[in-house]
Amino acid sequence: MKSSLPIADIRRSRGFTLVEIVISATVLATLFLVVTLLFRHLSDSYRLTTWKQEHLQQAQSFWNIARKNLEEAADLIAVSSDLVATSSPLLYRSVSQTGLSQNGINPSGPLLRWEKSHILTSGTLEYRVECQVSLNDRSVAIQALPPSTMSAPSEELISTPKTILTDVDAFVIQTTPIKLDADRGEYLEAGVSSSTVGTLVEISIRFKPPSNSGLPSQIEITQNNKFKLAVDAASYTNPADFPAFP
Predict the structure, then answer these.
(1) How far apart are CA 175 and CA 165, in angstroms?
(2) What span, in angstroms and rounded, lies between the C-alpha atoms of 211 and 194?
(3) Which of 63, 126, 219, 221 has a 20 to 30 A CA-CA distance from 146?
(4) According to the model, what pLDDT value does residue 118 have?
């Protein structure tokens, strides 16, 4: 005697149809694509945020080091029977885009050069240090050394170039002479004259991710700061024209 299943049980026991499998696969694929895109977006956002925070911190470190050293810039002090000061201006050079040669000139090289002197309360020169900020490809480093004939405290020196900034796309410097009027009040005016007592230095740094970073190419950060110096300033175009560094 043959046994038979009810029709309802037969329908329940059969497998998935092709249409059901296609629909299920489409839903799973769509869900997987959404999760992948969401993960990629979150990953890119994290990398971008990390890059921005890192370079904002770099800029702050640079401003701190530059302010400490730049605002101590002084004219060249020599010791004879008395202290004799001769003009030792801030030497500077702007780079509008680090990755490109400017008029056939490699942009790498010195960006800023200045001297600072430490005078004792007795009025004698204790030591002198020469400082330099330089560009190497897309990185900026600072170095501070005494002249070959002098020594200086180790805490004042940066014996080997210390890289502070990376992914630098532009390093632009503008200077304006500071002058004194008849009432000994300070004002800004182009052109060095007998009334010039210093220089206002404005530095603008633009950061941009490298082309192989995977970050959006239009992303950039610009940081600006101003410094008041007690010396004149002289502009250079070619880094090879800078005087030799100790």
Answers:
(1) 22
(2) 48
(3) 63
(4) 87
Q: Which residues have CB under 8 Å from 120's CB, separation 6+?
A: 126
pLDDT, tens digit (0-9, with 9 covering 90-100), for 134-152: 999 999 999 999 988 889 9
**Cα separation of 109 and 121, whole Å?**
37
Tokens found for residue 79: 């010791």
Distance CA 207, CA 138 (A): 9
User: What are the residue boundaries of the structural domains of the chain, listed by start?
Assistant: 45-98+163-241
Query: What is the token pair recorded at 93?
Result: 């050079």
80-99: pLDDT as tens digits: 556 666 789 999 999 999 98
Q: Give the span between the Cα atoms of 95 and 110, in whole angstroms.
A: 10
CA distance 140 to 111: 9
DSSP 15-81: ---HHHHHHHHHHHHHHHHHHHHHHHHHHHHHHHHHHHHHHHHHHHHHHHHHHHHHTTB--EEEESS
Which run of H or E residues covers position 143?
Answer: strand 139-145
DSSP 8-state secondary structure symbol assigned to residue 156 = G
Question: Sheet containing 125-136: which strands, arranged edge to edge?
Answer: 158-165, 139-145, 125-136, 109-119, 90-92, 233-235
Tell me which amino acid residue 14 is.
R
Q: Which of 1, 128, 150 is nearest to 75 (CA)?
A: 128
